[in-house]
Amino acid sequence: MSIVTNVAVFFAVNPDEELTAQDIGVKWGVNPNNVGQSLRYGTAKGWVASTKRPNPERPTKKIVFYTAGPRLLKEIGK
């Protein structure tokens, strides 16, 4: 099973949550440096959405936050 499936299922059950690459790495035992590349397909298809925002720990850096994508939200009726 791909990481896209795991993340999409997580967001289907928890549509108001958001995860960083670090969170995803810890939850599913993947390298956080590979998360963006691994989720690229899910993002392109609308299952997962990604947005860059300021890092709360390092204000001069931005990090990517992943949330439920528009297609997933439509499928679950949100």
Describe this structure in words.
The chain has 78 residues and is of the alpha+beta class. It is built from five helices and three strands. Strands 1-3-2 form a three-stranded antiparallel sheet. A hairpin with a 7-residue loop joins strand 2 and strand 3. It is globular. The model has no long low-confidence stretch (mean pLDDT 92).
Q: Supply the number of helical segments.
A: 5
Query: Helix coverage percent of residues?
Result: 40-55%
Distance linking N and C termini: 25 Å
Give the integer mean of the pLDDT values.
92
Secondary structure: elements and pairs:
Layout: H1 3-13, E1 19-20, H2 21-28, H3 35-38, H4 40-44, E2 48-54, E3 62-68, H5 70-75
Antiparallel strand pairs: 1-3, 2-3
Question: Quick summary of this structure?
Answer:
With 78 residues, the chain is an alpha+beta fold. It has helices at 3-13, 21-28, 35-38, 40-44, 70-75, and strands at residues 19-20, 48-54, 62-68.
List its salient traits:
78 residues, alpha+beta, three-stranded antiparallel beta sheet, 5 helices, globular
